[in-house]
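Hey, quick one: can you model this chain's 3D structure?
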Amino acid sequence: MGGGSDHKPEHLLIVVPLPEPEKILDRIRKEHPNIKISYHEITLGRTTFDRDESDIPNEIYKDVTILVTLSALPSSPDDCPNLKLVHFLSAGTNHVADSPIYKDTDITITTSSGIHGPQISEWVLMTSLGHSHHFPQLYEWQQQKKWGRFAGVHTVHDMEVGRVAKAMGMDVIAYTASPRDTAESKKDKGFIVPGTGDPNGDIPSAWYSGLEKGNLQTFLKQDIDILLVSVPLTKETEHFLGKEEFKILGETRNTFISNISRGQIVDQNELIEALRKAPKNGGLRGAALDVTDPEPLPEDSPLWTMPNVLVTPHVSGQTSAYIGRSFQVLEANLTRLEKGEKLLNVVDRKRGY
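Sure thing. Here's the predicted structure for all 353 residues.
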């Protein structure tokens, strides 16, 4: 499955809920003249990852060899006999893990992992500093034309992330599924937006790893001021953070949790309970949630009105540069494909990312 002769021109089909990026496609045509490009704009669903393929005719995939998509896929492998590469505009693929193309073929799948770093860093800083400086209260006073005053000493918890955190003098530690105990293993071999990131893994002062709860809890005991959740959603990471983990974080540092990954990574009911508990009693200081379980977050969820919680509708990765960066990953892989080189951001179906 996903074969086709290497001597035939490639047919690249783009099926996304966005207007055609003409300048980007002109550049691809110039750099890769042997590729035929087709574009099919679809309707955006209720959420970003809704898979409504009703307006996509099955025959559109017949001679396609490379597919670019956000969520739409052929309904059957029989509809795409020549398909050999699927590139997702998203960082994850959990939203298509039950599709026949994902489950029943060995068609190579790549993602846009790595393009979100700059804008998500800004979101994390915005929300963490906004909470730390009580911005919601300040904004409310402004709307009321009120020169407010905080009771007692107004304590600000300084916090930053990754590269900025290091530059600001903070200590950064990391937790990964697999050990990063050598210089080579610490290197980021995926796509990195030029001029950003940590390609050599030099920023963290310490690395922790493992999918076992014991390893995770050892990491969480390291006096963490802000915990940034950015792991992929898999069977192993669903509800990875629960009651015991929140207890550790609450009792050691009243940690502030920032989740930009997937809502199911945390046990949301237990998170709510930990946020309701006062910090002096071992509760969490607060949370910034760009992802929830489910999405959209129901109107009756207590998270909407909790004073120590900031909720945003899965927008932390958005940027005017998003499409351009995602196609940078595709273009790099088109060049690698032509040269017979290893592709970037290939999904390991067994691991789920």
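One thing worth noting: Residues 128 and 288 are 7 Å apart (CA to CA).
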